[in-house]
Amino acid sequence: ETCFLCVCCPLMKFFFIPGQADTTCHAFVGETVVLPCTTTPPGELIFSQSRLYWQIDKRIVHFFHKGQDLLKNQDKHFRGRTSLFLDQMKHGNLSLKISNVQLLDNAEYTCIYKQDDDHQTKKSKIKLSVSGK
């Protein structure tokens, strides 16, 4: 799937799928983009026992643990530009909003969700394609 322009991409339900990105999103420098990620079925998220990582390879783009953002180890390039939809997370929306998109944001992102009492890790890959204006 390809999606354009906030730029919002369609929400994707996910389980671990090896290989290529599930979705490609497009944005121009300076825009705000939403990278989609949802749990299946919605309503399973238990804040006190969950971890959500948004990563590019091993670089931390955003980390949410036990009900709060933990951005101490966030890649400096993303500082102050990422956020989650906290009011929608309990319904399964784990999407990441990136504001003021930069050319260096062009990458394949991985959304990784894990509950402490569940040995299953759920992953989804989203490619962000950034263009200059």
Automatic annotation (TrEMBL):
Domain Ig-like: 10-129
Keywords assigned by UniProt, alphabetized: Disulfide bond, Glycoprotein, Immunoglobulin domain, Membrane, Signal
GO terms for biological process, alphabetical: regulation of cytokine production; regulation of leukocyte cell-cell adhesion; regulation of T cell activation; T cell receptor signaling pathway
Protein location: Membrane
Gene Ontology CC annotations of this record: external side of plasma membrane
Top-level taxonomic group: Eukaryota
Gene3D superfamilies documented for this protein: Immunoglobulins
Signal peptide: 1-21
Transmembrane segments annotated in the record for this chain: none
UniProt-listed InterPro entries: Ig-like_dom, Ig-like_dom_sf, Ig-like_fold, Ig_sub, Ig_V-set, IgSF_BTN/MOG
GO molecular function: signaling receptor binding
Protein name: VTCN1 inhibitor
Species: Rhegmatorhina hoffmannsi (white-breasted antbird)
